[in-house]
Design a protein that fits this description.
three-stranded antiparallel sheet; mainly beta; single chain; four-stranded antiparallel sheet; 7 strands
């Protein structure tokens, strides 16, 4: 078991997806979307922080070597509906 202590108290939502023998952790906060790819030992092998306007917990899908992240944007100021956006990230390597 690996203890993951990366200041999660600062984030609003956390999503985790198994990718091969490792994991991908997506955290959302007022600062944006943070993606971390961890190997089986819990070591970060790739990370990214995107200053995206996010209103919800991210949904994760790994397919064909890419990580797809779906999330809802904040509603329009005029009281409109939330838009759903999808971002694509490449993983450092496909973990076995």
């Amino acid at each position: 078991m690996v203890h993951y202590d990366q200041g999660l108290a600062d984030f609003d939502e956390v999503a985790v997806l198994r990718v091969g023998s490792g994991f991908v952790v997506a955290t959302t906060s007022a600062q944006g979307l943070r993606i971390e790819q961890l190997d089986a030992a819990g070591k970060i092998v790739r990370e990214s922080l995107e200053p995206l306007p996010i209103y919800s917990q991210a949904s994760l899908l790994f397919a064909h070597g890419h990580l797809y992240v779906a999330y809802a944007e904040p509603p329009a100021r005029s009281g409109g509906e939330n838009r759903v956006a999808v971002a694509r990230f490449s993983c450092a390597r496909q973990l076995p």
